[in-house]
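Dear colleague,

Following up on Tuesday's group meeting, I ran the structure prediction for the two-component complex that the binding team flagged. I've pasted the input sequences exactly as they went in, so you can double-check that nothing got truncated or mislabelled along the way. The structure tokens for the whole assembly follow below. Feel free to forward this to whoever is handling the docking comparison.

Inputs:
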Amino acid sequence: MPAQFAATPITQLDTPALLLDRVRMDRNIARMRDKIASLGVALRPHVKTVKCLEAIECLAPGCGAVTVSTLREAEELAAAGYRDILYAVGITPQKIPRVQALRRRGVDLKVIVDNHEVAAAVRAGGFDTSDPIPTLIEIDTDGHRAGVRPDDAALLGTIAGGIGGALRLGGLLTHAGGSYECRSIDALKASAAQERDGIARAAAILREAGHRLDIISIGSTPSVLFSEDMTGVTEARAGVFAFFDLVMAGIGVCAPQDIALSVLATVISAQPDRGRLIVDAGWMAMSRDRGTARQPIDQGYGMVCDLHGTPYRDLIMIDANQEHGVLGLRPASAAAIPDLHVGDQVRILPNHACATASQHGAYQVTDEARGAIMHVWPRFGGW
Amino acid sequence: MPAQFAATPITQLDTPALLLDRVRMDRNIARMRDKIASLGVALRPHVKTVKCLEAIECLAPGCGAVTVSTLREAEELAAAGYRDILYAVGITPQKIPRVQALRRRGVDLKVIVDNHEVAAAVRAGGFDTSDPIPTLIEIDTDGHRAGVRPDDAALLGTIAGGIGGALRLGGLLTHAGGSYECRSIDALKASAAQERDGIARAAAILREAGHRLDIISIGSTPSVLFSEDMTGVTEARAGVFAFFDLVMAGIGVCAPQDIALSVLATVISAQPDRGRLIVDAGWMAMSRDRGTARQPIDQGYGMVCDLHGTPYRDLIMIDANQEHGVLGLRPASAAAIPDLHVGDQVRILPNHACATASQHGAYQVTDEARGAIMHVWPRFGGW
């Protein structure tokens, strides 16, 4: 196994660096697979969190079905052999040529809409109609973003009826983004039920009107993991479950020790008299995401752990500049600032895995037992 | 002029895209140069905002003196011929080999410290001492981050006295990060005076003790632009002035029409009944920076303008998901949501230019009069 010869001790990495604990990731993926199997639906993992071919191979082995958030992701995956791709951000007429170019390469790329303007513009645009693009209507089951309300039969009918020419009706999609606001297991279960019930109502309306719907797609990591019934659903989408993060831990979806991603940083200034330490990981390494700010426990810019990943009591990143992170204790903490000195290293768990990962060009994949890096997995970005 | 033949209409760009208005940038740079000339100091522009060789050539023509926030920036600039570089984040012993490698290539790379632990560790580390690295002591003139208090004569003496071996004392540096919290011109002037006075006091203490200080370096865009006296200072550092942003406009350092950076986005869902529009630029394109949240006018994730850069009345990005931006009106606005439809494009001014630019791989440099892209300038990132 050549990687054993290439292993770099974690302590020898240039900092800041993005560490990925493969054991935790594999455990998180297994948990999702077990849950999905128990629900009797297909998993269409969302690659927007990982954006890395090696990680996507773990999520969707054998070039399985995937969800993307950009056409760039679709193009990267198409080049790697993936053929069943859903682009889960509302399509615009300007993007149709890139979609059709991928379909001509043999990729069954599907798109979504929540209005009848797109279909009308595509009809007027003179696009090739020989291979209509499967188009899912986006349903808004919790009012948080885009989509058609599931009971709006008139609008559903108008949109479904307007899809034609270079597009063809392929099914329905919803995303329970509101699940991120849940604060209890009961609320998570209710969010999952609302998501399923909403899309089922919309599907019934359209099927009664004679429309054929092959794909009924739902998802968000919290709502899938706490779903108790996916009757009528064909597939579930989720992405952040592979890494998890402090926002997910704050909701109760995982524990901090499930979080597979951390940022390695080095102390550059120790100020025990001011109750703080400065490290060389600021918002450029952590992102500006403050997703836990609205949760019961605000984790600042991240929870600080030692090199083995064990959290220091009450130590978080309380402020961040571009390349400086200020570490300090939670308000009213009785703990002491750990005795760390310039040159010492720490690991910081992120609020939001998608945002923190996107700040880095690659994952340093760790062998935690050996304290070493076994692989470097490059990420892709852009649009 | 070949660029005239390659010009792409702005409306034909794939979205989201990062637009850079060259005319505004040049005007902003000229303003800073005029100010610096009136103060009689040298400008050492900070490249952390632009991270792009073509833009740095505008900031520091002829491979002039520059400031960097990462060693990666120093390495990129060294390869492009820059020789006078200051790395303005506290150095750690682990980074000494990369610094020395650059110095061996003929780069006069300088580092900073705010403690005596680094010098002791470098002494113990057995590094080559044949070309000592010029080392500036960081002074904390406003308590906001790293640095030694300017009146702490004992600590200043200990640090200065401890610098030796592979390091040599090169001067002092401070950064008035507190200037970002100013809310009036008077406060900005006071911040600038405090920054200069603090570093002057520290310099007097060390010179009285017999230390030689060649470089006295201060800076932040607000404090430099509102400084009235830089007596005793040799150089000023600033970075965000080249682009400006809504945080700077909120402080009163610039007007929104000075902001050279914007994100081009396309409407993907129009929901006038809910008072909102959804565009294909979310936090991945804007960043999660909410720097205006603590200012008198909260700009959400950005101020929304038409294709020509004219702001729509009270329209801001009120929420952002990874690839979705939700546009809506400011609280209590009497304005109407503009009549925009799916496929229409808007431009969004960022809260924080450094953070938004870092989300993109390149700048689309515009010719605003022609509504076209004249150049694509790549950015570099990483550490």
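The mean pLDDT of chain B is 95.

Cheers,
M.
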